[in-house]
Amino acid sequence: MSRLMIIGCGGVASVAIHKCCQNSEVFDEIMIASRTVSKCDALKAELEGTTSTKITTAKVDADNVDELVALINEYKPEAVLNLALPYQDLTIMDACLKCGVHYIDTANYEAEDTENPAWRAIYEKRCKELGFTAYFDYSWQWAYEEKFKEAGLTALLGTGFDPGVTSVFAAYAKKHYFDEIHTIDILDCNGGDHGYPFATNFNPEINLREVSAPGSYFENGKWVEIPAMSIKREYDFDGVGMKDMYLLHHEEIEALARNMPEVKRIRFFMTFGQSYLTHMKCLENVGLLRTDAIEFNGQQIVPIQFLKALLPDPASLGPRTVGKTNIGCIFTGIKDGKERSIYIYNICDHQECYKEVKSQAISYTTGVPAMIGAMMVLRGDWKKPGVFTTDEFDPDPYMDALNKWGLPWVVEENPTLVE
Predict the structure, then answer these.
(1) Which structural domain, as residue segments, surrounds residue 186?
(2) What is the CATH number of the domain that holds 181?
(3) What's the pTM?
(4) How far is the C-alpha of 330 from the C-alpha of 185, rounded, in Å?
């Protein structure tokens, strides 16, 4: 039915590729392309014989537009699923425009070099105008809106779990449960234990930059920024239990605030144990979370990239991680003139994920929605010219696909609310 190019071959990409191969009716052919083609070849060898999907592999530098264009033109996919680093979003979008193919990703653009003067000038202007200082935001990709519209192409941004599924939950709640949504609290709980003193469940460079940054939330039409990890709440998560969670800045807040302006407050919370926070603070204090280059033994290194090389690869955590995740959204608002509150969430078991696709649940909960987002575009359920986030389409086919492809969800009426 369709041909998809997948860029990246890390933990999330591996899950998405497994799920594409389970869904051969939609994905007849896929190409796995990465800087490290040996990883692509190994995954192809693992999957061949278990699927009717035809798999090819290729080497590509996702920072190089010309190289991307040459490969896309050679393979001729209908869409590109970007599961590389957020730093590479714009080069891949540029290549898709040049080649006339649809674009899909799981995380919004983030600059690798945050000291670059040209980027810094734009960033500081945005900080003043919008009121939050996170290094990642949608403005860079939203700027492609007219280009994709003129080309008649779809760019689907952020089809992971959060962002991605959580925004679909919001669209679903708005369509089926509320006349007005007043508040949205997004809760991301990982109750898994990998047994290491310290490790991150996805790319350490991205994860540590995200959680060490100031938190922020959207309330009454404006951003409110707070010091990192300064707002803490406790919540009793179904399937996991009582956990400490902290308010963070997260990209879906920005998209939901733009697309659902009637919502009065949107917040994002993620759970962390004290050991994780202590390790992270120590690393930050000694400079290992720095993103600027330093000179060491006559060569330039970026401390956070050096730290990434020292930490366990998130893709290696699957066999040793036990426990469950619980990720979802609590909504409050009005239906038929009466106050209403619901909680839509998914519970995912780390060991069950490993049995199915040799991955822990963090990669699984991002990789499955990546496949679903690609399916929505390729199948025509979600296809219109322009740049969109997942809350801007009919949520029903996506929600049905979550149930079918391994991420069943629950709607709980009158949940405990977050203070």
Answers:
(1) 165-357
(2) 3.30.360.10
(3) 0.93
(4) 5
